[in-house]
Amino acid sequence: MTAAPVTAGLRAVGREARRLRITPRFRGRELTLLVIVAIALIVGDLSLGATRLLKEAQLAGDQPPPDLAVLAAPAILVIYLIGLFAVHGALVLAGRRTDQILLPTVGLLGGIGLLLMIRLPQDLAGRLGGLAQTQLLWLVIGLTIVVLLAIAVRNDVWLRRYKYTWAAVGVGLLLLTFVFGRDINGARLSLTIGPFSGQPSELLKVILVVFLAGYLSENRPLLQEESTRLGPFRLPPLPYLAPMVAMWAIALGIVIVQRDLGAALLFFAVFLLLLYVSTARFSFVVLGLAAFVVGAGLLYFVFDHVRTRIDIWVDPFADPTGAGFQVVQALHAFARGGLIGTGLGAGLPSIAGRPPIPALHTDFPFAALGEELGLVGILAVLGLYLVLVERGLRIASAAQDEFRAILAAGLSLVIGVQAFIIAAGNLKLIPLTGITLPFVSYGGSSLLANSVIVGMLIALSERTREPLPPPRRPGRIRRLLDRGAA
Questions:
Q1: Sequence-distant (≥ 6) Cβ neighbours of residue 349 within 8 angstroms
Q2: Are 76 and 133 in contact (CB under 8 A)?
Q3: Distances from the Cα of 92 to the Cαs of 73, 101, 382, 388, in angstroms?
Q4: Of 132, 175, 391, 418, which is least surrounded by CB within 10 A?
Q5: pLDDT for 397-431, tens place per residue?
């Protein structure tokens, strides 16, 4: 008697799946890569546990146990791996022919970040008993977002038709942050609404890409025209270029006022790259870089925090125990790591019981990985980000229309540019901006926003997509130009 309702429910689910043409599809490549990822993370955890036992034995003056390899992975890592394979199972049941490389790549990056959080002092941050537990919660929520978007998003009409609405929402969130937000290290970044708090600039990077993809795909032919001359450069008609530049300038201006220089640099780079990808006009790159140099010079003389960041970048050893302390310690960490590193858990000598870099879990995880994994390890981590960018660009090249192509390219470039900015800042190649390392740094806002990006990329990689929406009616400016030409 009790089995009848369950059987009826399963039959109903089966009928609905047949109606939607949902057929489970085996994802062998993804499963193989996930197994490799699980093995790598378990080996990393065993290494971390063995190092901990050695340190405890040395402090106690005892001999280390004879068999350090027989260690069980902690519950935190086991839960994370279960989550990864659960996402894989959901994608198999959904039956969509989507990319099978993105999930294992993101899973390995998230696992590396989780091992780092397990290794660090748990009282650095976190509300659920420590740093690692809170990071695990955000990772599980991020994986849930990835699988929901990858399965549910089958049409992009809701993105392309309301690009200006999305842009207005993003700018509105930043304005709310500027008025009602709270300061973090001198920058007004966080907005609290009820029990929830986060950084709207993380969400804005996704919204900006959606807006740029919609506008560039709709006006690409006109943006490629040369009707306005500026010295040796030829620009497209200003009525079509001005709205896009104005929207970008508003968002950029707000984050500059909020002193969020990392987001400002990210927005500028993504804007310039997408403009070049969609128009193939190298003159835009030259003008953009010239505007960047001029703007950076003005900001250096106008804003004290910009001047401080650049001065630290030029010579952090001028004040090694003050303003340049974190950069100097990061350089020392890379030097201690050398080629192959000190080993997981064997680096990061503490100063008075604390890590030498106060923002190690947010702004300097790349330095921590450089010390414990060495040059080989950080090159492997950078290689994972290159894989994400390559898969995104591959999805863009196979897209059925310009909007999806520009959207996929922009989403993948957001992750690539963000990783480059934080890695270059830790290595003192560019001024430190305080931006997070995707899927590795501690923080909910960054993890959730990057999970949205990966989920959208997986959804866009679908080989058998629904028919494209019908073309929109020409806008007012287009009709006016056509009328004038007639």
A1: 356
A2: yes
A3: 27, 14, 29, 21
A4: 175
A5: 888 888 899 999 999 999 999 999 999 988 988 88
